[in-house]
Amino acid sequence: MFNKILIANRGEIACRVATTARRMGVQTVAVYSDADARAKHVQLCNQAVHVGGSAPKDSYLQWQRIIDAAKQTGAQAIHPGYGFLSENEDFAQACADAGLVFIGPPASAIQAMGLKAESKRLMEAAGVPLVPGYHGTDQTPELLHKEADRIGYPVLIKASAGGGGKGMRAVDKSEDFMAALESCKREAINSFGDDAVLIEKYVQRPRHIEIQVFGDTHGNYVYLFERDCSVQRRHQKVLEEAPAPGMTPELRQRMGEAAVAAARAVNYVGAGTVEFIVEQPGGYDKPEQMQFYFMEMNTRLQVEHPVTEAITGLDLVEWQLRVASGQPLPKQQDELRIHGHAIEARINAENPENNFLPATGTLKVYRTPEWSVDFERADARVDSGVREGDAISPFYDSMIAKLIVWGEDRQQALARLDGALAHMRIVGLTTNVQFLRHVLATPSFSQAHLDTALIQREADVLFKQDKLGMPMTVAAAIGYRIFNERQRLQNNDPFSRRDGWRAYGGFSRQFQLQYLGQPLQADLRYEHDGSYYITIVEPDGTLHPKVLSEGALVLEERDDGRMEVFYQGDRQVLQAWLDGEDLNVFGQRGGSVITMVDTLFHSGETGGDGGRLTAPMPGKVVSFAVKAGDKVTKGQPLAVMEAMKMEHTISAPADGEVVELLFAPGDQVQDGDELLTLKTA
Ligand code: ADP
Ligand code: ADP
Ligand code: MG
User: Which run of H or of E encompasses 146?
Assistant: First the structure.
């Protein structure tokens, strides 16, 4: 076994590899870019070497620097992770030439599987079933068109060098072929520097089922069963599970043996995945009629490998290190078993409502379920390369974490995944957590009616959904305010008691809110017995307001910042965080975001007085949330003012630095008085 390896990657996969290496007593060397100087993977490794600027081409793809770093630090082998250099045969060869072990297949196997068209020609010779299509070298447009006509529409044009769901065009009829070919070739040359294409029959309602294979340097091969990755958006995986629902032992064996034949045909060594597209001509409930066709082989560890680990009880990174150091495969085919069911959800910084556009930002709150375990086989496992406070930057991909859940059967695994998603707390950027819960809840998914169009088919129930609902979300927002004010009173003023603030009894106050794009006004009335009553109205009907919801609000404080909210016969245990003006509410039923419009904050915005933060009306300074010298970001609360029996948070209109506080808590201020000075950037 190696003493020391270098991990030529970042994020969750670098952390994943480092964790197994540490358990095995193997030292690790991280590499990092400017943006990643303080990243989790750097901390997890024993040593770290800076390899360049933030953009991948300046750092993680700088393979000469990476090889130099391995030499300097005395690493004996390089683990490439996935993406970046993992499927680059020149890098694999350069490692070998430098006397370093590349933890992956030989360069020749990467090359053989690197181009989709070439690999199909090889697979055809090895007797692996292929999607009917054309994968020849003659790229004359007229010939390609004739081939598409012969295959029959719809067809899929694929860039041979493509990957990551890019460089594909579906064509429905012959008239559209030439235009689609041209645009596919344009994307292929731009993204992959190679415009060769192949043409395949477009399989209707297919499933994506892939087989994990492993080979060693002694000529042994095994398959570690299948993963179903049919739930996709934009041809990219969203949920992955193992085993595939409805799989029969007979089909599993045939697919497993076909995958091993594929690996054997290129003298494969290490971990690889053979992806199949599966036709279900008999519908979802006739697995015996399923037809599988080779799609491509990924010559590396796959993002979704943890579901295989969860059902086999194996550590695939450990297997990679053993095989790379020359040991035989730890198990033979007849020693491998499937135990239970596992599913992985990719938690991404993205906006499902806006065509899954990636989001960037800071993880102001990042909490995983308290019973989850990092990187280890467990009922709930989290693989993640970030910590609370880290940024999801524009330089790298938008995956925040992978949540992997095991159950005795599919139903239990799905229920546990939903429970775990309900306990994810992410504030600071948009994520797909709620969307994933909606996917789990669809009849198609729960009944395993799987195909790659599931998300499009179920679009009606997947988007613009909020299971917490408007009345409960508003109640949560008001509850959050009340608890915060109580706390502030307790902290700031030893003479005020929790019940002291009932002096407001009989008064009411208004909240301006924005929920799913709709402005709302909530009136909170303090009853004399200390209870609350909420009326939610449309804000414009000042004279004849339309009441949207009303009822008594009961709040109970629970441990670690949670509150129990009773409103209109509904009871929810909720947790909330304010991010600027957006309150992020989380509960078992779902999460939602409600904007608490701060009128003072906005009056400052239009006032145009730059760094001056002034009192817009006479009142009292309650507290300052900052002190001189503090760096603040736009939207951060700076001070709380009380005026007209309402408290207002004064937030930073822009990023900047606090220069001076001009009053003390308790001071009376006049309309137009400057409260503090802020130097904006
Ligand atoms: P990539 O290299 O981008 O992963 P793949 O060839 O693996 O490309 O295809 C990605 C996805 O595109 C598949 O998982 C599947 O959803 C869809 N797809 C690929 N080939 C076909 C086909 N012939 N018919 C229908 N869908 C396909
Ligand atoms: P609350 O949000 O009211 O605190 P619980 O903590 O009881 O709710 O958890 C609610 C759900 O979370 C459960 O139904 C289950 O799906 C999931 N869950 C909670 N604890 C565990 C655990 N230890 N293991 C697996 N799932 C759990
Ligand atoms: Mg693929």
Answer: helix 141-151
Q: Which of 381, 440, 588, 589 to mutate to test the pocket of ligand 2 (most atoms within 8 A of CB)?
A: 588
The bound ligand whose nearest atom lies closest to the alpha carbon of 369 is: 2
Q: What's the pLDDT score for residue 643?
A: 67
Q: What's the predicted TM-score (pTM) here?
A: 0.85
Asked if residues 412 and 247 have their Cβ atoms less than 8 Å apart, the reply is: no
CA 37 – CA 529 distance, rounded (Å)? 56
Q: Enter the DSSP assignment of 13.
A: H
Residues in the chain: 681
CA-CA distances (angstroms) from residue 570 to 235, 413, 521? 40, 28, 21
Percent of the chain with pLDDT over 90: 72
Mutate to test the pocket of ligand 1, among 155, 277, 297 (most ligand atoms within 8 A of CB): 277
DSSP codes of every residue in 571-603: EEEEEEEEETTEEEEEESS-EEEEEEE-HHHHH
- Report the alpha-carbon distance of residue 537 to residue 521 in Å, rounded: 5
Judged by DSSP in three states, 500 sits in: helix
Q: What is the pLDDT of residues 261-312, one digit of tens each?
A: 999 999 999 999 999 999 999 998 888 899 999 999 999 999 999 999 999 9
Which ranges of 172-299 would DSSP assign to H, the alpha helix? 177-192, 249-265
Which element (helix H / strand E) includes 491? helix 470-492
Ligand 2 binding pocket, CB closer than 6 Å: 371, 379-380, 416, 419, 422-423, 573, 588
How far is the C-alpha of 123 from the C-alpha of 263, rounded, in Å? 10
**Which has the minimum average pLDDT: 4-18, 193-207, 639-653?**
639-653
User: Of 578, 558, 553, whose CA–CA distance to 475 is shortest?
Assistant: 553
Which sign does the torsion angle of CA 325, 327, 333, 337 carry? negative
* Site of tokens 């082998």: 77
Mean residue pLDDT of the chain comes to 91
pLDDT, tens only, 480-503: 998 888 877 676 554 444 443 444
Q: Judge whether 300 counts as a catalytic residue.
A: yes
Per-residue pLDDT, averaged over 87-99, amounts to 97
Q: Tell me the C-alpha distance between 347 and 384, whole Å.
A: 10
pLDDT digits (tens, 9 = 90+) for 163-218: 877 889 999 999 999 999 999 998 898 888 899 999 999 999 999 999 999 999 99
CA distance 84 to 59: 10
Q: How many CB atoms lie within 10 A of CB 275?
A: 18
